[in-house]
Amino acid sequence: MATLIRMPEVAAGATEIVLSRWQVAPGQTVKVGDVLAEMETEKAVVDYAADTDGVVHRILVADGASVEVGAPIMLLLAAGEDPSVADALLGGDAAVAPAAAAVEPVVVATPLASPVSSSPVLDALPTMAAQAAATPDGRIFASPIVRKIARERSIDLNSIAGTGPEGRIVRRDLEARLENQSSPASTAQAPAPVTHAAPAATGSELAKQEYSSSYSMVPHSGMRRAIARRLTESKSTVPHFYVTADCKVDALLELRKRINDSSPVKISVNDIVVKAVACALMDVPDSNVVWTPDAMRRYESADIAIAVTTDGGLLTPVVRGVEKRSLSNLSLEIKELAERARAGKLRQEELEGGSFAVSNLGMFGTKEFTAILNPPQSGILAVGAASPRAIVEDGQIVVANVMTVTLSADHRAVDGALAAEWLAAFVRRIENPLGMLV
Questions:
Q1: Residue 220 catalytic?
Q2: Which of 140-154, 260-274, 351-365 has the lowest mean pLDDT?
């Protein structure tokens, strides 16, 4: 029978999702598991797969549209089904009509004619947009996310030609306009400013002009806004405290060298650190917890988030059951998650869960730092670079490779003594790495 596909809640708590791009077209046959569309959340691009077989009858929203969770997005027919049945299903849903377009009409006032004409190209833009997107009564149709960005950037939608269904302005149209605004060709069309004679500048004024600063405004991405919101919330609402330790890692570096000399999978220092974190969570199970308002959530396995730097910001995909994995398996999993994070191909469920995180800046030469918790996780280990340092051993000053780590903990779930106990367990594991392979 005909199926009305609605926008799923691909991210926990989301009320509106951007449908980035359809992967199917009307008339195409799909099977369970086939990807129907790419959907953009604040942190990832999610593939939405079909949960039933059928034939695509109608697509109800355009690429780039922002759609409320639960709104209809597509009609799917069973094989051989009469299309009129699906049309009746669409017509019988009172909520479909406005949601099908995924937009609301917005009236945009036409600006007063300027006495100075900018250029023939810019003068033609409102006419092009009016032909494509305006209705006879002067309304402009655009997706909600387009209207939001246009308001933030003070962009007149009259000047944009829509390429969506029936001339609707979609996200790609607005992005093209922003690119044109920032290009040399567009800035060259701007009218020359009126200049006035000014008194000759003094020596100090010339010095100020010579060293004056310039800057550009880079719009926030959805990911950057999400990072700002979540970390501000974390730092202001979660009671952080910090515990620091130095780890002697000569045995770790020697073990890593021996493994990499014989293994086809190259192991990094970070792989061994993540494994040591998991073993320490198993050694001190009371630390493997997350605070909730009603009860403490205690985890039985070590599900650890790994901080990955991407062009858009920091992502933290979660590796499940780290304590059960071999170093080679763990290394491959971390590499695969990092690659997909940088390509924007993580699934939403891969960014959720876990009780602990690891953030490693050692590869950048950072000696030590503190990290902000990623709620609801109750711990994050900040890992610095290993470097030769003078230490006292058996009453003698010797040189050893030392790595400084700092644990940030949620004091609601982990007390100071418990955090110190966990950190001591981690230091034992990292300084005696061979025990993690047994």
A1: no
A2: 140-154
From CA 167, how far away is CA 44, in angstroms rounded?
Answer: 29
**Can you give the pTM of this predicted structure?**
0.63
Please give the single-letter amino acid code of residue 104: E
Structure-block tokens of residue 146? 């387009």
Which of 5-9, 131-135, 277-281, 375-379 has the weakest average pLDDT? 131-135
C-alpha pair distances (Å), 383 with each of 246, 295, 341, 407: 10, 30, 20, 9
Instruction: Give the C-alpha separation, 383 to 247, whole Å.
Output: 10
Share of the chain above pLDDT 90, in %: 42
For residues 133 and 101, the answer to whether their CB atoms sit within 8 Å is no
Contact status, residue 92 vs residue 86, Cβ threshold 8 Å: no
* Per-residue tokens: 29: 């046959």
From the list 335, 430, 321, 433, the residue with the least C-alpha distance to 381 is 430
Site of tokens 């609601």? 412
Find, among 356, 333, 328, the residue nearest to 437 by Cα: 328
Q: What is the pLDDT of residues 397-437, one digit of tens each?
A: 999 999 999 999 999 999 999 999 999 999 999 999 999 98
CA dihedral of 261, 264, 267, 272, whole degrees rounded to 10: -100
192 CB-near residues (< 8 Å, 6+ apart): none
Enter the DSSP assignment of 259. H
H runs (alpha helix) in 134-170: 144-153
Q: Report the chain's terminal Cα–Cα distance, integer Å.
A: 56
